[in-house]
Amino acid sequence: MCGTVTDQPPPAPEHVDDPWDGVDIDNAVASFFRALADGPLRDDALLAALRDDGAWGALGELADDDFAAEISDLDVPGLWRTQMAMWLDVFRTLDGRVFTHRLTADELAEGAVAALPDLTLVDWDVPARRIVGGSGAVATDFDPAFDRFEGGRLIGPDGWLDGFAPGDVLGVRLVRDDTVRIERIDAADLPGPDDPAVAELATAFRPCFDRWSNGNGDELAPAVLDVLADVPDAFRTPTLPLGELAVAAGLERRGLEFGPADRTWLTHAQQAFRRRGDELAADLVDWLASPLRTVVSVMVEWLGDTDALPAASVAKARDALATEGVAGMAGELFRGHSAPGRLARFVDALGGPGNDAATPAVHVLVGIAAELGGRFDDAEQEFRAALDVDPGQLDAVVELGILASDRGDAVEAERRFRSAAGPEAWLRALSVLLPPRATGRNEPCPCGSGRKFKQCCLVNPTTPVERRGPWYELRLARHLANRDALAFEIFYGVLSEYLHEEAEINDALVDDLVSLATGNVGSYLDAHADRLSDVDRAGLEAWRDAPVTLHHDPESGVTARRVVPLGTAEYLVWSLPLDATAAEELEGLLGDDDAVTSVVDWALWYVSTFEED
User: How far apart are CA 447 and CA 56, in angstroms?
Assistant: First the structure.
Protein backbone atom coordinates (compact mmCIF):
# COMPACT_ATOMS: atom_id res chain seq x y z
CA MET A 1 0.00 0.00 0.00
CA CYS A 2 1.46 3.32 -1.03
CA GLY A 3 2.59 5.60 1.81
CA THR A 4 2.39 3.03 4.59
CA VAL A 5 5.19 1.65 6.79
CA THR A 6 5.54 -2.11 6.73
CA ASP A 7 7.72 -4.55 8.64
CA GLN A 8 8.82 -6.25 5.43
CA PRO A 9 12.58 -6.73 5.19
CA PRO A 10 14.42 -4.65 2.59
CA PRO A 11 14.99 -6.36 -0.74
CA ALA A 12 18.12 -8.49 -0.93
CA PRO A 13 20.97 -6.82 -2.77
CA GLU A 14 21.34 -7.85 -6.38
CA HIS A 15 23.81 -10.72 -6.77
CA VAL A 16 26.93 -9.84 -8.73
CA ASP A 17 28.79 -12.73 -10.31
CA ASP A 18 32.41 -13.03 -9.23
CA PRO A 19 34.56 -14.16 -12.19
CA TRP A 20 36.72 -16.13 -9.75
CA ASP A 21 33.77 -18.32 -8.78
CA GLY A 22 34.45 -21.88 -9.84
CA VAL A 23 38.16 -21.29 -10.57
CA ASP A 24 40.42 -23.99 -9.13
CA ILE A 25 43.34 -21.81 -8.01
CA ASP A 26 45.86 -24.66 -7.92
CA ASN A 27 44.96 -25.72 -11.45
CA ALA A 28 45.00 -22.11 -12.63
CA VAL A 29 48.50 -21.60 -11.20
CA ALA A 30 49.66 -24.85 -12.82
CA SER A 31 48.38 -23.53 -16.16
CA PHE A 32 51.17 -20.92 -16.16
CA PHE A 33 53.77 -23.67 -16.17
CA ARG A 34 51.91 -25.67 -18.81
CA ALA A 35 51.85 -22.56 -20.99
CA LEU A 36 55.61 -22.00 -20.52
CA ALA A 37 56.62 -25.62 -21.04
CA ASP A 38 58.13 -24.88 -24.46
CA GLY A 39 59.95 -21.71 -23.41
CA PRO A 40 59.42 -18.01 -22.61
CA LEU A 41 56.31 -16.18 -23.85
CA ARG A 42 55.45 -12.51 -24.18
CA ASP A 43 52.47 -11.03 -22.32
CA ASP A 44 49.99 -11.42 -25.19
CA ALA A 45 51.09 -14.94 -26.04
CA LEU A 46 50.89 -16.01 -22.38
CA LEU A 47 47.35 -14.62 -22.02
CA ALA A 48 46.28 -16.49 -25.14
CA ALA A 49 47.82 -19.73 -23.85
CA LEU A 50 46.09 -19.33 -20.49
CA ARG A 51 42.72 -18.82 -22.18
CA ASP A 52 43.25 -21.92 -24.32
CA ASP A 53 44.15 -23.96 -21.26
CA GLY A 54 40.59 -23.74 -19.93
CA ALA A 55 41.57 -23.53 -16.25
CA TRP A 56 40.34 -19.95 -15.82
CA GLY A 57 36.60 -20.33 -16.36
CA ALA A 58 34.77 -17.01 -16.75
CA LEU A 59 37.99 -15.09 -16.16
CA GLY A 60 39.29 -16.34 -19.49
CA GLU A 61 36.38 -14.64 -21.24
CA LEU A 62 37.41 -11.16 -20.07
CA ALA A 63 39.16 -8.68 -22.35
CA ASP A 64 42.96 -8.87 -22.29
CA ASP A 65 43.45 -5.85 -20.01
CA ASP A 66 40.79 -7.04 -17.55
CA PHE A 67 42.09 -10.62 -17.58
CA ALA A 68 45.66 -9.40 -16.98
CA ALA A 69 44.48 -7.17 -14.12
CA GLU A 70 42.63 -10.04 -12.44
CA ILE A 71 45.60 -12.43 -12.51
CA SER A 72 48.29 -9.82 -11.76
CA ASP A 73 47.79 -10.14 -8.01
CA LEU A 74 48.69 -13.84 -8.03
CA ASP A 75 52.12 -14.37 -6.53
CA VAL A 76 53.31 -17.54 -8.22
CA PRO A 77 56.72 -18.86 -7.07
CA GLY A 78 58.91 -19.91 -9.95
CA LEU A 79 57.62 -17.37 -12.47
CA TRP A 80 59.65 -14.45 -13.78
CA ARG A 81 58.67 -11.53 -16.02
CA THR A 82 61.54 -9.73 -17.72
CA GLN A 83 61.70 -6.00 -18.33
CA MET A 84 60.87 -6.76 -21.96
CA ALA A 85 57.56 -8.47 -20.97
CA MET A 86 58.80 -12.04 -21.42
CA TRP A 87 57.60 -14.71 -18.97
CA LEU A 88 59.86 -17.55 -17.78
CA ASP A 89 59.39 -20.75 -15.83
CA VAL A 90 62.47 -20.13 -13.68
CA PHE A 91 63.13 -23.75 -12.71
CA ARG A 92 62.79 -25.00 -16.28
CA THR A 93 64.92 -22.11 -17.56
CA LEU A 94 67.72 -22.68 -15.02
CA ASP A 95 67.81 -26.43 -15.59
CA GLY A 96 71.30 -27.37 -16.80
CA ARG A 97 72.86 -23.92 -16.35
CA VAL A 98 76.26 -23.83 -14.69
CA PHE A 99 77.60 -20.89 -12.69
CA THR A 100 81.25 -20.57 -11.71
CA HIS A 101 83.20 -19.12 -8.79
CA ARG A 102 86.92 -18.79 -8.03
CA LEU A 103 87.50 -20.21 -4.54
CA THR A 104 89.50 -18.39 -1.88
CA ALA A 105 91.59 -19.89 0.91
CA ASP A 106 89.15 -18.54 3.52
CA GLU A 107 86.19 -20.17 1.79
CA LEU A 108 87.95 -23.52 1.69
CA ALA A 109 88.93 -23.24 5.35
CA GLU A 110 85.33 -22.47 6.37
CA GLY A 111 83.65 -24.90 3.97
CA ALA A 112 81.37 -22.07 2.90
CA VAL A 113 81.27 -20.12 -0.35
CA ALA A 114 80.05 -16.55 -0.88
CA ALA A 115 76.67 -16.69 -2.59
CA LEU A 116 76.93 -13.24 -4.15
CA PRO A 117 77.60 -12.25 -6.78
CA ASP A 118 78.72 -15.34 -8.69
CA LEU A 119 76.26 -17.94 -7.34
CA THR A 120 73.29 -15.65 -6.80
CA LEU A 121 70.84 -17.94 -8.63
CA VAL A 122 71.72 -21.17 -6.85
CA ASP A 123 69.14 -20.60 -4.11
CA TRP A 124 66.51 -18.85 -6.27
CA ASP A 125 63.16 -19.82 -4.67
CA VAL A 126 64.87 -22.93 -3.24
CA PRO A 127 66.25 -22.78 0.34
CA ALA A 128 68.43 -25.87 -0.21
CA ARG A 129 69.50 -28.01 -3.17
CA ARG A 130 70.47 -31.68 -2.91
CA ILE A 131 73.85 -32.63 -4.34
CA VAL A 132 73.60 -35.08 -7.23
CA GLY A 133 75.58 -38.27 -6.63
CA GLY A 134 76.39 -37.41 -3.03
CA SER A 135 74.86 -36.98 0.37
CA GLY A 136 73.62 -33.77 1.83
CA ALA A 137 72.62 -30.47 0.30
CA VAL A 138 73.88 -26.99 -0.44
CA ALA A 139 71.96 -24.35 1.50
CA THR A 140 72.20 -20.60 1.96
CA ASP A 141 73.17 -19.38 5.41
CA PHE A 142 72.82 -15.78 6.59
CA ASP A 143 74.92 -14.77 9.57
CA PRO A 144 72.69 -12.65 11.85
CA ALA A 145 75.71 -10.44 12.56
CA PHE A 146 75.72 -9.35 8.90
CA ASP A 147 73.66 -6.35 7.95
CA ARG A 148 70.74 -6.77 5.59
CA PHE A 149 72.71 -5.47 2.60
CA GLU A 150 75.28 -8.29 2.78
CA GLY A 151 74.81 -11.64 1.10
CA GLY A 152 74.76 -15.10 2.57
CA ARG A 153 77.04 -18.08 2.12
CA LEU A 154 76.48 -21.43 0.47
CA ILE A 155 77.21 -24.22 2.92
CA GLY A 156 77.40 -27.88 1.96
CA PRO A 157 77.99 -31.14 3.83
CA ASP A 158 81.35 -31.94 5.41
CA GLY A 159 84.00 -32.39 2.75
CA TRP A 160 81.96 -30.99 -0.12
CA LEU A 161 84.94 -28.85 -1.20
CA ASP A 162 87.59 -31.55 -0.75
CA GLY A 163 90.00 -31.66 -3.68
CA PHE A 164 89.75 -27.93 -4.40
CA ALA A 165 92.61 -25.48 -3.88
CA PRO A 166 92.62 -21.68 -3.63
CA GLY A 167 92.12 -20.23 -7.10
CA ASP A 168 90.34 -23.33 -8.41
CA VAL A 169 87.04 -22.80 -10.16
CA LEU A 170 83.93 -24.26 -8.56
CA GLY A 171 81.11 -25.03 -10.95
CA VAL A 172 77.57 -25.32 -9.63
CA ARG A 173 75.26 -26.80 -12.25
CA LEU A 174 71.55 -26.45 -11.46
CA VAL A 175 69.43 -29.51 -12.11
CA ARG A 176 65.64 -29.27 -12.47
CA ASP A 177 63.71 -28.48 -9.30
CA ASP A 178 66.00 -28.71 -6.27
CA THR A 179 69.30 -30.42 -7.04
CA VAL A 180 72.81 -29.33 -8.04
CA ARG A 181 75.87 -30.99 -9.50
CA ILE A 182 79.21 -29.82 -8.06
CA GLU A 183 81.92 -29.62 -10.74
CA ARG A 184 85.64 -28.91 -10.56
CA ILE A 185 86.62 -26.77 -13.54
CA ASP A 186 90.19 -26.17 -14.64
CA ALA A 187 90.77 -22.41 -14.57
CA ALA A 188 92.63 -22.71 -17.88
CA ASP A 189 89.45 -23.98 -19.51
CA LEU A 190 87.47 -20.85 -18.71
CA PRO A 191 87.21 -18.35 -21.58
CA GLY A 192 88.78 -14.95 -20.98
CA PRO A 193 87.01 -11.59 -21.12
CA ASP A 194 88.19 -11.09 -24.73
CA ASP A 195 86.74 -14.38 -25.92
CA PRO A 196 84.07 -13.72 -28.61
CA ALA A 197 81.48 -15.80 -26.75
CA VAL A 198 82.08 -13.83 -23.54
CA ALA A 199 81.97 -10.53 -25.43
CA GLU A 200 78.65 -11.52 -27.01
CA LEU A 201 77.21 -12.51 -23.63
CA ALA A 202 78.50 -9.30 -22.00
CA THR A 203 76.92 -7.25 -24.80
CA ALA A 204 73.56 -8.91 -24.12
CA PHE A 205 73.98 -8.61 -20.35
CA ARG A 206 74.58 -4.86 -20.13
CA PRO A 207 71.19 -3.59 -21.43
CA CYS A 208 69.39 -6.16 -19.25
CA PHE A 209 71.22 -4.81 -16.21
CA ASP A 210 70.60 -1.18 -17.15
CA ARG A 211 66.86 -1.76 -17.50
CA TRP A 212 66.65 -3.15 -13.94
CA SER A 213 69.07 -0.76 -12.22
CA ASN A 214 67.88 2.55 -13.74
CA GLY A 215 71.44 3.85 -13.67
CA ASN A 216 72.13 2.92 -10.04
CA GLY A 217 73.46 -0.11 -8.22
CA ASP A 218 71.80 -3.50 -8.23
CA GLU A 219 72.55 -7.17 -7.76
CA LEU A 220 73.03 -9.32 -10.82
CA ALA A 221 70.28 -11.93 -10.52
CA PRO A 222 67.44 -10.00 -12.28
CA ALA A 223 69.69 -9.17 -15.24
CA VAL A 224 70.88 -12.79 -15.52
CA LEU A 225 67.29 -14.08 -15.67
CA ASP A 226 66.49 -11.51 -18.35
CA VAL A 227 69.56 -12.59 -20.33
CA LEU A 228 68.33 -16.18 -20.30
CA ALA A 229 65.20 -15.06 -22.16
CA ASP A 230 67.32 -13.30 -24.80
CA VAL A 231 70.22 -15.77 -25.09
CA PRO A 232 68.76 -19.29 -24.65
CA ASP A 233 72.17 -21.03 -24.69
CA ALA A 234 73.79 -18.76 -22.08
CA PHE A 235 75.56 -20.56 -19.21
CA ARG A 236 75.06 -24.01 -20.72
CA THR A 237 78.84 -24.41 -20.59
CA PRO A 238 81.23 -22.95 -18.01
CA THR A 239 82.02 -19.28 -18.56
CA LEU A 240 83.34 -16.39 -16.49
CA PRO A 241 81.96 -15.99 -12.96
CA LEU A 242 79.07 -13.52 -12.94
CA GLY A 243 81.10 -10.84 -11.17
CA GLU A 244 83.79 -10.98 -13.86
CA LEU A 245 81.18 -11.05 -16.61
CA ALA A 246 79.66 -7.87 -15.16
CA VAL A 247 83.04 -6.15 -15.32
CA ALA A 248 83.42 -7.29 -18.93
CA ALA A 249 80.04 -5.65 -19.56
CA GLY A 250 81.34 -2.29 -18.34
CA LEU A 251 80.15 -2.47 -14.74
CA GLU A 252 82.08 -1.92 -11.53
CA ARG A 253 81.60 -3.55 -8.16
CA ARG A 254 80.84 -1.81 -4.88
CA GLY A 255 80.27 -4.26 -2.06
CA LEU A 256 77.78 -6.78 -3.39
CA GLU A 257 76.24 -4.49 -5.98
CA PHE A 258 77.31 -3.40 -9.43
CA GLY A 259 76.80 -0.19 -11.32
CA PRO A 260 77.94 1.56 -14.49
CA ALA A 261 81.71 2.16 -14.50
CA ASP A 262 81.34 5.20 -16.74
CA ARG A 263 79.17 7.33 -14.44
CA THR A 264 78.31 8.05 -10.80
CA TRP A 265 75.86 5.65 -9.16
CA LEU A 266 74.54 4.72 -5.72
CA THR A 267 73.99 1.36 -4.06
CA HIS A 268 70.60 0.46 -2.58
CA ALA A 269 71.94 1.28 0.87
CA GLN A 270 73.16 4.68 -0.26
CA GLN A 271 69.83 5.42 -1.94
CA ALA A 272 67.92 4.37 1.18
CA PHE A 273 69.99 6.56 3.50
CA ARG A 274 69.75 9.55 1.19
CA ARG A 275 65.98 9.10 0.86
CA ARG A 276 65.43 8.77 4.62
CA GLY A 277 67.72 11.74 5.27
CA ASP A 278 65.78 13.89 2.84
CA GLU A 279 62.50 12.84 4.47
CA LEU A 280 63.78 13.80 7.92
CA ALA A 281 65.29 17.09 6.76
CA ALA A 282 62.14 18.13 4.88
CA ASP A 283 60.28 18.75 8.15
CA LEU A 284 63.06 20.73 9.85
CA VAL A 285 63.95 24.39 10.05
CA ASP A 286 66.91 25.36 7.85
CA TRP A 287 69.45 25.73 10.65
CA LEU A 288 68.85 22.10 11.61
CA ALA A 289 68.09 20.63 8.17
CA SER A 290 71.36 21.87 6.65
CA PRO A 291 73.76 20.14 9.08
CA LEU A 292 71.65 16.96 8.98
CA ARG A 293 71.94 16.87 5.18
CA THR A 294 75.70 17.31 5.55
CA VAL A 295 75.94 14.30 7.86
CA VAL A 296 73.73 12.27 5.52
CA SER A 297 75.93 13.14 2.54
CA VAL A 298 79.00 11.90 4.43
CA MET A 299 77.11 8.73 5.42
CA VAL A 300 76.24 8.11 1.76
CA GLU A 301 79.87 8.68 0.78
CA TRP A 302 81.05 6.26 3.49
CA LEU A 303 78.56 3.60 2.43
CA GLY A 304 80.16 3.65 -1.01
CA ASP A 305 83.58 2.83 0.47
CA THR A 306 83.41 1.63 4.06
CA ASP A 307 87.19 1.32 4.43
CA ALA A 308 87.91 5.00 4.95
CA LEU A 309 86.66 8.57 4.73
CA PRO A 310 88.70 11.52 3.48
CA ALA A 311 89.80 13.88 6.25
CA ALA A 312 87.75 16.70 4.72
CA SER A 313 84.57 14.59 4.89
CA VAL A 314 85.26 13.63 8.51
CA ALA A 315 85.71 17.31 9.40
CA LYS A 316 82.43 18.24 7.66
CA ALA A 317 80.48 15.55 9.48
CA ARG A 318 81.92 16.41 12.89
CA ASP A 319 81.19 20.12 12.41
CA ALA A 320 77.58 19.28 11.49
CA LEU A 321 77.14 16.87 14.42
CA ALA A 322 78.05 19.65 16.83
CA THR A 323 74.65 21.23 16.08
CA GLU A 324 72.14 20.36 18.81
CA GLY A 325 69.66 17.70 17.72
CA VAL A 326 71.57 16.40 14.70
CA ALA A 327 73.06 13.36 16.46
CA GLY A 328 69.66 11.98 17.49
CA MET A 329 68.26 12.34 13.98
CA ALA A 330 71.39 10.85 12.42
CA GLY A 331 70.97 7.87 14.73
CA GLU A 332 67.35 7.52 13.57
CA LEU A 333 68.63 6.71 10.08
CA PHE A 334 70.17 3.50 11.42
CA ARG A 335 67.23 2.32 13.52
CA GLY A 336 65.70 -0.87 12.23
CA HIS A 337 67.25 -0.62 8.77
CA SER A 338 70.70 -2.13 9.22
CA ALA A 339 72.74 -4.11 11.70
CA PRO A 340 74.01 -2.16 14.74
CA GLY A 341 77.55 -2.80 13.57
CA ARG A 342 77.00 -0.42 10.66
CA LEU A 343 76.50 2.62 12.92
CA ALA A 344 79.47 1.59 15.05
CA ARG A 345 81.64 1.35 11.92
CA PHE A 346 80.52 4.79 10.78
CA VAL A 347 81.49 6.25 14.16
CA ASP A 348 84.89 4.58 13.84
CA ALA A 349 85.27 6.19 10.41
CA LEU A 350 84.64 9.56 12.08
CA GLY A 351 87.47 8.90 14.54
CA GLY A 352 85.35 7.97 17.57
CA PRO A 353 84.28 10.44 20.27
CA GLY A 354 87.51 12.43 20.01
CA ASN A 355 87.94 15.73 21.82
CA ASP A 356 86.14 18.52 19.97
CA ALA A 357 82.74 20.17 19.72
CA ALA A 358 81.27 16.97 18.24
CA THR A 359 82.40 14.74 21.13
CA PRO A 360 79.05 14.69 23.01
CA ALA A 361 77.15 13.98 19.77
CA VAL A 362 79.47 11.12 18.83
CA HIS A 363 78.99 9.62 22.31
CA VAL A 364 75.26 9.71 21.55
CA LEU A 365 75.80 7.82 18.28
CA VAL A 366 77.95 5.23 20.05
CA GLY A 367 75.18 4.87 22.63
CA ILE A 368 72.52 4.38 19.97
CA ALA A 369 74.68 1.70 18.33
CA ALA A 370 74.97 -0.08 21.69
CA GLU A 371 71.22 0.21 22.26
CA LEU A 372 70.47 -1.26 18.83
CA GLY A 373 72.78 -4.14 19.69
CA GLY A 374 70.91 -4.83 22.95
CA ARG A 375 73.80 -3.58 25.13
CA PHE A 376 71.68 -1.26 27.25
CA ASP A 377 74.18 -0.73 30.07
CA ASP A 378 76.85 0.29 27.55
CA ALA A 379 74.34 2.61 25.89
CA GLU A 380 73.55 4.31 29.20
CA GLN A 381 77.26 4.74 29.88
CA GLU A 382 77.75 6.49 26.54
CA PHE A 383 74.77 8.82 27.03
CA ARG A 384 76.08 9.74 30.47
CA ALA A 385 79.51 10.37 28.96
CA ALA A 386 77.88 12.81 26.54
CA LEU A 387 76.32 14.68 29.48
CA ASP A 388 79.65 14.74 31.32
CA VAL A 389 81.04 16.79 28.43
CA ASP A 390 77.88 18.80 27.73
CA PRO A 391 75.16 18.68 30.42
CA GLY A 392 72.76 20.26 27.94
CA GLN A 393 73.04 17.50 25.29
CA LEU A 394 69.30 16.94 24.83
CA ASP A 395 69.60 13.85 22.62
CA ALA A 396 71.45 12.09 25.45
CA VAL A 397 68.85 13.25 27.99
CA VAL A 398 65.97 11.86 25.92
CA GLU A 399 67.76 8.54 25.31
CA LEU A 400 68.34 8.16 29.05
CA GLY A 401 64.64 8.81 29.62
CA ILE A 402 63.72 6.01 27.23
CA LEU A 403 66.21 3.63 28.83
CA ALA A 404 64.72 4.48 32.23
CA SER A 405 61.28 3.68 30.80
CA ASP A 406 62.47 0.29 29.55
CA ARG A 407 63.57 -0.68 33.03
CA GLY A 408 60.28 0.56 34.47
CA ASP A 409 61.61 3.65 36.29
CA ALA A 410 58.80 6.09 35.57
CA VAL A 411 60.08 8.76 37.97
CA GLU A 412 63.54 8.87 36.40
CA ALA A 413 62.05 8.78 32.90
CA GLU A 414 59.76 11.72 33.66
CA ARG A 415 62.62 13.69 35.21
CA ARG A 416 64.72 13.22 32.08
CA PHE A 417 61.90 14.11 29.68
CA ARG A 418 60.96 17.19 31.69
CA SER A 419 64.53 18.45 31.63
CA ALA A 420 64.53 17.99 27.83
CA ALA A 421 61.04 19.55 27.53
CA GLY A 422 59.85 16.49 25.61
CA PRO A 423 59.05 14.38 23.76
CA GLU A 424 55.49 15.41 24.49
CA ALA A 425 54.03 11.94 23.84
CA TRP A 426 56.20 10.40 26.56
CA LEU A 427 55.34 13.16 29.01
CA ARG A 428 51.62 12.65 28.34
CA ALA A 429 51.92 8.90 28.91
CA LEU A 430 53.79 9.44 32.16
CA SER A 431 51.28 12.04 33.35
CA VAL A 432 48.67 9.25 33.32
CA LEU A 433 51.06 6.95 35.10
CA LEU A 434 52.47 9.13 37.89
CA PRO A 435 50.60 10.89 40.69
CA PRO A 436 50.31 14.68 40.44
CA ARG A 437 53.41 16.50 41.61
CA ALA A 438 53.25 17.51 45.28
CA THR A 439 53.97 21.12 46.15
CA GLY A 440 56.76 20.00 48.47
CA ARG A 441 58.85 16.95 49.26
CA ASN A 442 57.61 16.90 52.88
CA GLU A 443 53.90 17.21 52.10
CA PRO A 444 51.54 14.22 52.20
CA CYS A 445 51.83 12.02 49.11
CA PRO A 446 48.88 12.53 46.75
CA CYS A 447 48.49 8.75 46.36
CA GLY A 448 46.82 8.69 49.79
CA SER A 449 49.33 6.45 51.56
CA GLY A 450 49.70 8.90 54.47
CA ARG A 451 53.47 9.12 54.02
CA LYS A 452 55.44 12.13 52.91
CA PHE A 453 55.88 12.53 49.16
CA LYS A 454 59.70 12.13 49.42
CA GLN A 455 59.24 8.79 51.23
CA CYS A 456 56.59 7.46 48.89
CA CYS A 457 55.83 8.12 45.23
CA LEU A 458 58.82 10.42 44.67
CA VAL A 459 61.09 7.38 44.87
CA ASN A 460 58.70 4.47 44.36
CA PRO A 461 55.45 5.53 42.73
CA THR A 462 52.33 3.53 43.37
CA THR A 463 51.39 2.73 39.80
CA PRO A 464 48.43 0.51 39.06
CA VAL A 465 49.22 -1.53 35.98
CA GLU A 466 46.05 -0.36 34.24
CA ARG A 467 47.57 3.12 33.90
CA ARG A 468 50.51 1.80 31.89
CA GLY A 469 48.83 1.30 28.52
CA PRO A 470 50.03 4.53 26.84
CA TRP A 471 53.54 3.98 28.26
CA TYR A 472 53.65 0.42 26.92
CA GLU A 473 52.52 1.63 23.49
CA LEU A 474 55.46 4.03 23.26
CA ARG A 475 57.98 1.49 24.51
CA LEU A 476 56.79 -1.15 22.07
CA ALA A 477 56.73 1.30 19.15
CA ARG A 478 60.29 2.36 19.95
CA HIS A 479 61.43 -1.27 20.10
CA LEU A 480 59.74 -1.95 16.76
CA ALA A 481 61.50 1.04 15.20
CA ASN A 482 64.84 -0.21 16.55
CA ARG A 483 64.54 -3.79 15.37
CA ASP A 484 62.52 -3.65 12.18
CA ALA A 485 61.59 -0.20 10.96
CA LEU A 486 61.67 -1.62 7.45
CA ALA A 487 58.78 -3.97 8.27
CA PHE A 488 56.78 -0.99 9.51
CA GLU A 489 57.58 1.00 6.38
CA ILE A 490 56.58 -1.85 4.10
CA PHE A 491 53.30 -2.46 5.94
CA TYR A 492 52.54 1.24 6.17
CA GLY A 493 53.30 1.58 2.47
CA VAL A 494 50.75 -1.12 1.65
CA LEU A 495 48.12 0.76 3.64
CA SER A 496 49.14 4.24 2.52
CA GLU A 497 46.99 4.14 -0.61
CA TYR A 498 43.96 4.01 1.66
CA LEU A 499 44.96 6.46 4.39
CA HIS A 500 42.36 8.96 3.26
CA GLU A 501 40.26 6.89 5.71
CA GLU A 502 42.13 8.57 8.58
CA ALA A 503 39.38 7.87 11.12
CA GLU A 504 39.69 4.14 10.55
CA ILE A 505 43.36 3.42 9.77
CA ASN A 506 45.56 5.14 12.32
CA ASP A 507 49.08 4.82 13.67
CA ALA A 508 48.02 2.72 16.67
CA LEU A 509 46.38 0.17 14.37
CA VAL A 510 49.40 0.01 12.04
CA ASP A 511 51.89 -0.24 14.93
CA ASP A 512 49.96 -3.03 16.57
CA LEU A 513 49.35 -5.05 13.40
CA VAL A 514 53.05 -4.86 12.55
CA SER A 515 53.83 -5.90 16.12
CA LEU A 516 51.56 -8.90 15.66
CA ALA A 517 53.16 -9.75 12.33
CA THR A 518 56.74 -9.51 13.61
CA GLY A 519 56.36 -10.87 17.15
CA ASN A 520 57.44 -7.48 18.45
CA VAL A 521 56.07 -7.79 22.00
CA GLY A 522 57.76 -11.14 22.54
CA SER A 523 60.98 -9.64 21.18
CA TYR A 524 60.69 -6.74 23.64
CA LEU A 525 60.19 -9.15 26.53
CA ASP A 526 63.27 -11.13 25.47
CA ALA A 527 65.43 -8.02 24.94
CA HIS A 528 64.63 -6.58 28.37
CA ALA A 529 64.18 -9.84 30.31
CA ASP A 530 66.71 -8.87 32.98
CA ARG A 531 65.44 -5.31 33.34
CA LEU A 532 61.66 -5.64 33.62
CA SER A 533 59.73 -5.41 36.87
CA ASP A 534 57.21 -8.14 37.66
CA VAL A 535 54.40 -5.67 36.98
CA ASP A 536 55.75 -4.75 33.55
CA ARG A 537 56.42 -8.35 32.62
CA ALA A 538 52.85 -9.36 33.48
CA GLY A 539 51.39 -6.38 31.64
CA LEU A 540 53.46 -6.94 28.49
CA GLU A 541 52.72 -10.66 28.48
CA ALA A 542 49.01 -9.77 28.60
CA TRP A 543 49.61 -7.38 25.66
CA ARG A 544 51.38 -10.12 23.71
CA ASP A 545 48.61 -12.65 24.27
CA ALA A 546 45.54 -10.42 23.82
CA PRO A 547 43.59 -11.51 20.72
CA VAL A 548 41.81 -9.42 18.13
CA THR A 549 38.11 -9.75 18.91
CA LEU A 550 34.81 -8.87 17.33
CA HIS A 551 32.53 -6.66 19.40
CA HIS A 552 28.83 -6.54 18.48
CA ASP A 553 27.26 -3.27 19.58
CA PRO A 554 23.53 -3.08 18.76
CA GLU A 555 23.79 0.69 18.27
CA SER A 556 27.10 1.22 16.49
CA GLY A 557 27.38 -2.15 14.73
CA VAL A 558 30.37 -4.50 14.59
CA THR A 559 33.84 -3.41 15.68
CA ALA A 560 37.18 -5.19 15.52
CA ARG A 561 39.20 -4.45 18.63
CA ARG A 562 42.38 -5.30 20.45
CA VAL A 563 41.79 -5.04 24.17
CA VAL A 564 44.54 -5.85 26.67
CA PRO A 565 43.62 -6.82 30.24
CA LEU A 566 45.87 -4.69 32.45
CA GLY A 567 45.37 -5.25 36.14
CA THR A 568 41.75 -4.64 37.08
CA ALA A 569 40.98 -2.74 33.87
CA GLU A 570 41.08 -3.24 30.12
CA TYR A 571 43.20 -1.14 27.78
CA LEU A 572 41.81 -0.50 24.30
CA VAL A 573 44.75 -0.59 21.88
CA TRP A 574 42.62 0.14 18.81
CA SER A 575 39.08 -0.13 17.57
CA LEU A 576 37.92 -0.36 13.97
CA PRO A 577 34.28 -0.17 12.77
CA LEU A 578 33.41 -2.89 10.27
CA ASP A 579 30.77 -3.37 7.66
CA ALA A 580 29.02 -6.73 7.54
CA THR A 581 31.27 -8.20 4.85
CA ALA A 582 34.49 -7.22 6.66
CA ALA A 583 33.16 -8.57 9.93
CA GLU A 584 32.30 -11.91 8.32
CA GLU A 585 35.73 -12.13 6.69
CA LEU A 586 37.53 -11.38 9.96
CA GLU A 587 35.39 -13.83 11.90
CA GLY A 588 36.50 -16.57 9.53
CA LEU A 589 40.15 -15.59 9.67
CA LEU A 590 40.18 -15.41 13.47
CA GLY A 591 39.40 -19.11 13.47
CA ASP A 592 42.48 -19.86 11.38
CA ASP A 593 45.27 -21.85 13.02
CA ASP A 594 47.81 -19.17 12.11
CA ALA A 595 46.18 -16.32 14.00
CA VAL A 596 48.93 -13.76 13.42
CA THR A 597 49.01 -14.25 9.67
CA SER A 598 45.23 -14.26 9.58
CA VAL A 599 44.89 -10.89 11.29
CA VAL A 600 47.45 -9.25 9.04
CA ASP A 601 45.96 -10.84 5.93
CA TRP A 602 42.58 -9.57 6.99
CA ALA A 603 43.91 -6.04 7.56
CA LEU A 604 45.40 -5.94 4.08
CA TRP A 605 42.19 -7.33 2.59
CA TYR A 606 40.02 -4.88 4.53
CA VAL A 607 41.80 -1.73 3.41
CA SER A 608 41.75 -3.02 -0.16
CA THR A 609 37.96 -2.80 -0.01
CA PHE A 610 38.07 0.97 0.54
CA GLU A 611 37.15 3.04 -2.47
CA GLU A 612 39.02 6.20 -3.36
CA ASP A 613 37.20 9.46 -2.63
Answer: 69
